């Protein structure tokens, strides 16, 4: 380390408010639960899970999914009303000056002196957007599958009426997830055909999400090691530390 670096003045700036940090860690906990249960459901035969056990696992997966969806919905809304660094304008990879900012950042990476960013750097914005798209896709398809597989909200009643054909109260009350009793065979077949693109999207979205999470973690660790501005601890403290003024520094209050 040269004298310039050793004598540099460290300045700490607030960036991630409580709302963003709470969202992040609830999201992490939900994803750990959803991915773990999803893997057991997917490999249920290898784990020796019974039919009743599979339904129970799907039910637990769905209830965790409700928390995940609520948390994600709040974060999407916060992107419109939250602090500057939490807003979509600071996340989505487009807008005035984004292309130049990305070019400058990549050049800085090549020169081993990337410009410091308090919020997401231009490259990270691509990754974060990709992850939000995947999370939203999983949320939507998951809610549909909760209805097709378990007859749970928000669409469960509609699917239950569909598969019973007549939709009479006694049929609906006796309908059980995972059972073909009290269903109209033709209507059930139609419903399962409707389900197919949603389960396929959910499955491949799961694969992409796992890859995206791994890439995100690797990128965060590499950025932390190279730029050393507390990018990891910032999700606990809400603050980052720099030796230079961040290029995206704003004076607005962080919430």
Blueprint (SSEs and pairs):
Layout: H1 3-6, E1 11-14, H2 18-42, H3 51-81, H4 98-110, H5 122-150, H6 156-164, H7 169-174, H8 185-227, H9 234-237, E2 239-242
Antiparallel strand pairs: 1-2
Query: Regions with pLDDT < 50 over 5+ consecutive residues?
Result: 1-6
CATH superfamily: Transmembrane di-heme cytochromes, Chain C
Reading the helices and strands in chain order gives: HEHHHHHHHHE
- Tell me the domain tally: 1
> pLDDT average, as an integer?
93
**Net shape:** elongated
CATH class categorisation: Mainly Alpha
Largest beta sheet: what is the strand line-up?
1-2
Distance between the amino and carboxyl termini: 36 Å
Radius of gyration: 23 Å
Question: Helical content, roughly?
Answer: 55-70%
How can the largest sheet be summarized?
2 strands, antiparallel
CATH topology: Fumarate Reductase Cytochrome B subunit
Total strand segments: 2
Task: Tell me the fraction of residues in β-strands, as a range.
Answer: under 5%
Number of alpha- plus pi-helical segments: 9
Give a written overview of the molecule.
By secondary structure, the protein is mainly alpha-helical. The chain has a single domain, classed as Fumarate Reductase Cytochrome B subunit. The protein is 64% helix and 3% strand. The chain is built from 9 helices and 2 strands. The protein has helices at 3-6, 18-42, 51-81, 98-110, 122-150, 156-164, 169-174, 185-227, 234-237, and strands spanning 11-14, 239-242. Strands 1-2 form a two-stranded antiparallel sheet. α2 runs antiparallel to α3 (51-81), α3 (51-81) crosses α5 and α5 (122-150) packs antiparallel against α8 (185-227). The radius of gyration is 23 Å and the shape is elongated. Residues 1-6 have low confidence and may be disordered.
């Amino acid at each position: 380390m040269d004298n310039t670096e050793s004598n540099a003045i460290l300045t700490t700036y607030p960036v991630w408010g409580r709302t963003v940090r709470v969202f992040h860690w609830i999201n992490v906990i939900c994803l750990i639960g959803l991915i773990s249960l999803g893997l057991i459901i997917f490999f249920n035969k290898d784990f020796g899970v019974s039919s009743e056990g599979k339904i129970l696992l799907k039910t637990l997966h769905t209830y965790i999914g409700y928390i995940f969806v609520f948390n994600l919905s709040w974060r999407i809304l916060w992107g419109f009303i939250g602090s500057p660094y939490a807003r979509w304008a600071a996340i989505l990879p487009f807008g005035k000056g984004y292309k130049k900012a990305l070019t400058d950042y990549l050049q800085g990476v090549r020169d081993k002196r990337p410009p410091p960013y308090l919020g997401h750097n231009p490259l990270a914005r691509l990754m974060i957007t990709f992850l939000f798209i995947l999370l939203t896709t999983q949320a939507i398809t998951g809610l549909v599958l909760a209805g097709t597989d378990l007859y749970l909200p928000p669409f469960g009643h509609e699917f239950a009426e569909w598969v019973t054909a007549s939709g009479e109260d006694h049929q609906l009350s006796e309908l059980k997830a995972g059972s073909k009793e009290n269903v109209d065979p033709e209507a059930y077949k139609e419903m399962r055909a409707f389900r197919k693109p949603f389960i396929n999207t959910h499955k491949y979205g799961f694969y992409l999400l796992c890859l995206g999470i791994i890439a995100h973690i690797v990128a965060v660790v590499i950025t932390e090691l190279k730029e050393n501005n507390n990018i990891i601890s910032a999700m606990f403290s809400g603050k980052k530390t720099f030796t230079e003024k961040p290029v995206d520094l704003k004076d607005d209050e962080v919430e």
